[in-house]
Amino acid sequence: MFREGTLGARLFQSPNTSQSIRWIFRAGEDFPITIRSNLESWRTSLNIITVPNRPSTRGRLEYTDQNNDAKIFRYLTPTLDVRPEHLKEFTSLSSSSFHLLADTREAMDLIGSLLELRKASGISSRPLIIWEPRPSACNPSNLRYFYEAISMADVFSPNHVELGAFFGYSILNGFDRRTIEDQAIRLLESGFAGSRKGSIIIRAAEHGSLVVSHTAQPKWLPAFYQPIVDGDGLSAPNPKVVDPTGAGNAYLGGFAIGLLESSDLITAAKYGTVAASFALEQIGLPTLSYDHADGQELWNGTMPLQRLEDFGRNLLS
Asked: Is pTM beyond 0.70 here?
């Protein structure tokens, strides 16, 4: 999992179960000790592989519109990728779910290698595999390759900008729910043509998220922090949203926990929505603290399960 993806999963675990969240990343010799200490404070099963004589992976993300929809990302250093064989070193092969960011070639290689290593290690069960497409690969010329590979995963989740890019649709044309639904259904029907088990999850920032599967009608869930609409019907960003970077990854981490616990896509999407809300309340990562009265974990001063309960209640009102 990615850092924010791990965060999304960790939010819904207690100190007694947090070690069940396993993650590995490869870092250069310059990896900041302050960040390492912060991540270790989450009390997960964290394994950092330090690569000698290499810088840590760094990138630059630039938002190019006021809604933070359009963005440009580029790596500033060579990437230090985690391979399935690294999982074997740290007994992570038996994990219940995996989250990957990849283009089609990478996804087919990673998923195939992962399943083969599990089989060779005597692990017969299939894990939940959530595939987030690499943004640079989302274009019409690659769509047919994604159709061929999507069924290797259980959940395929582009954001709404990436989804549109598959079909040559620009976010500059405006946000249209029906268009997004139609595009997501095309992905589902072509990508999971031979299976009725897969699902498409579209993460659409302040517009919420869309759940599409073979077993139910497309379902939209609102974002936790929605735009503020004034008396004239004009909308403005919610002031609670400080930095949306990483919110989509956090969504998928929370979604994975919700799906494993409930086996229900809508419930999982609620977990994802709440997880994303903690990622965007500040620049960087949320603050973990403890309630002095009962020792409960607080993230940004709030219990995630309480926020989840409140969100579910608001959906019913």
From this structure: yes
